[in-house]
Amino acid sequence: MIEEKYKTFWRRFWAGWVDTVVLLPLYFLDMFIWNNHQNISVFILLLWYGIYSLSYTVYSIIMHGKLGQTLGKMAMRVKVLDISETPLSMSQAIKRDIVPLGLTIVGIVLEAQTILSGVNIYDPKLSKYDASFYLTMLSTAGWFTAEVITMLFSNKRRALHDYIADSVVVKLPRKLI
Predict the structure, then answer these.
(1) Is the separation of the CB atoms in 64 and 96 below 8 Å?
(2) Cα distances (angstroms) measured from residue 35 to each of 28, 38, 89, 99, 122
(3) What does the pLDDT look like over 108-147, one tens digit per residue?
(4) pTM value?
(5) How far apart are CA 78 and CA 114, in angstroms?
(6) CB–CB of 2/157 below 8 Å?
(7) What is the DSSP letter of 176?
(8) Mean pLDDT, to the nearest integer, of 58-72?
(9) Kind and range of the H or E element at 38?
(10) Do the Cβ atoms of 167 and 96 come closer than 8 Å?
(11) Distance separating alpha carbons of residues 128 and 121, to the nearest angstrom
């Protein structure tokens, strides 16, 4: 039997969507930049690609390390805590996102040559999807799947990243007005 405070699957799911909406302006900026890439130095494009690619993970690390929650988790009233249910540390926040961080860095390194050659990485006519692209995509999809499966079969709804960081996600009580 799963204790009520750990039943956070749907709240975490919707929190992820809220966080996506929070970072949506970066997506529109990214599209603007790549639609006008011919007027921008390839080194600036590579720098932007790195910043944009890392934005969600860095947002997650900083918010969890400082507050134990992203804006999405605040909206859905869940919080990430140490397994002892004390506040999460910054090192635990980094550990929670170490795999996505690593996969993102690998993706940036693999795309660097394409970006430096002046190709718009979002133009399907100009970009080629090679083995490294598929390896990165399959690794990311595999990690996500393993995360969900682990969470669904854990008695405290802990995903792999929670085991790595010794953390747990709990529902927050409703505030009385």
Answers:
(1) yes
(2) 10, 8, 40, 30, 9
(3) 998 898 899 888 888 877 666 677 778 888 999 999 999 9
(4) 0.90
(5) 40
(6) yes
(7) P
(8) 98
(9) none
(10) yes
(11) 9
- Burial label, 162 (beta-carbon count in 10 A; 0-12, 13-18, 19+): buried
Asked if 83 and 168 touch (Cβ cutoff 8 Å), the reply is: yes
Give the ranges where the chain is alpha helix by DSSP (H): 9-22, 24-35, 42-67, 71-76, 90-96, 98-116, 131-152, 160-165
Residue located via tokens 């970009």: 127
Three-state SS at 85:
coil
Angle value at C-alpha 21, between 12 and 32, nearest 5 degrees: 145
Which residues are 79's β-sheet partners? Answer: 170
**Segment 145-160 mean pLDDT:** 95
* pLDDT tens digit sequence for 8-32: 999 999 999 999 999 999 999 999 9
Q: Tell me how crowded residue 123 is: count the other CB atoms within 10 A of its CB.
A: 11
Average confidence (pLDDT) over 141-166: 95
d(CA 65, CA 98): 13
